[in-house]
Amino acid sequence: MEWTQITIIVKPQDVDLAGDIANMTVPYGIYIEDYTDLEQGVQEIAHIDLIDEDLLKKDRDVAKIHIYIDPEESPQEAIAFLTERYMAEGIEHKIEEEKCEEDDWLNNWRKYFKPTEVGEKLLICPSWYDLEDTNGRIVLDIDPGLAFGTGKHETTRLCLSTLEKYVDDGSTVLDVGCGSGILGIASILLGAKSAFGVDIDPMAVRTAKENAVVNKVEDKFSVVCGDLTEKVEGKYDIIVANIVADAIIFLSKGVKEFMRDDTVYIMSGIIDTRLSDVEEALKNDFTIIDEIFDNGWYCIVAKAK
User: Fold this and answer.
1) Which residue from 3, 113, 205, 292 has the fewest beta carbons nearer than 10 Å?
2) What is the pLDDT of residue 50?
């Protein structure tokens, strides 16, 4: 399958916002090349001073964001959207595109996916990475494949750190739009009794199942292919949805069907410009008990009224 690689070149100080905007165009994540703090980053992750010669030669004056467009989608639509949003935000940018094979896409982002500490307890680690020191954290081995969810994006980190606060022994968790399965699997590693994931993308479902096996939680984690809650049954102690604002608004119209009286409803993927829209959609049926902000993104925690 021939995909389209779109590379967005921006100033390093704009890479976070530019990356957030780029992530709106694809459901399965992005990868970013930013070498401005290369030495510090290598020290924090690997605790060594020796850095590959090729990395030291990388351009420190720009950052590059890479996204991949499915063969069935239009690259020009994505480029038009990106151009419009970047101009509106005043972000200087250059956009390049080229064709690539699916295997190239997989191998490219793997070079830049490194272990990441999240919250107080978790360490997200690529499944192919040889980890020497866990720093006393719970290790979650993850291979996102073409599914969204490596733990590096703010929306996923917000969910993971929030789950730490609410998951306890015996919790049952529903993950709507589970992607790579990272949230459901993390919940089990944090002590949940079981987790059920649902995603509209068959590739995400397959990846989530594989990640459950890698983390040895396949007996507690189930995942199905479906649109939001169409294949969900029963009630859960925690419901988490790391999707987009419009999907959260739609989901919230019927999600109470799967909630107990004290169920915690965690929503992420809400860009700051859409916060008020989500709050308005929740106000009649839910009480917001917490809102957490990180670099332009919100996570909302609510309970049913």
Assistant:
1) 292
2) 38
Distance CA 223, CA 209 (A): 7
Q: Quick check: pTM over 0.90?
A: no
**Could you tell me which residues come within 8 angstroms of residue 44 by beta carbon, excluding any fewer than 6 positions away?**
none
Closest CA to 153 of 187, 125, 116, 185: 116
What's the one-letter identity of residue 3? W
Backbone CA torsion sign across 271, 82, 208, 205: positive
Query: What sign does the CA torsion over 275, 304, 178, 131 have?
Result: positive
Q: Find the mean pLDDT for residues 215-243.
A: 95
| Residue 35 near residue 59 (C-beta atoms within 8 A) | yes
**b/e sequence 104-114, b meaning 16+ C-beta within 10 Å:** ebeeebeeebb
**List of E strands, 189-285:** 194-199, 221-225, 236-242, 259-271
193 CB burial (10 A radius; 0-12, 13-18, 19+): middle
Residues 289-298: tens digit of each pLDDT: 999 998 888 9
What six digits make up the tokens of 114? 């490194």
Cα–Cα nearest to 52, from 35, 69, 66: 35
Q: 198 is written with which tokens?
A: 């649902």
Query: C-alpha distances in angstroms, 263 versus 80, 256, 287?
Result: 41, 9, 12
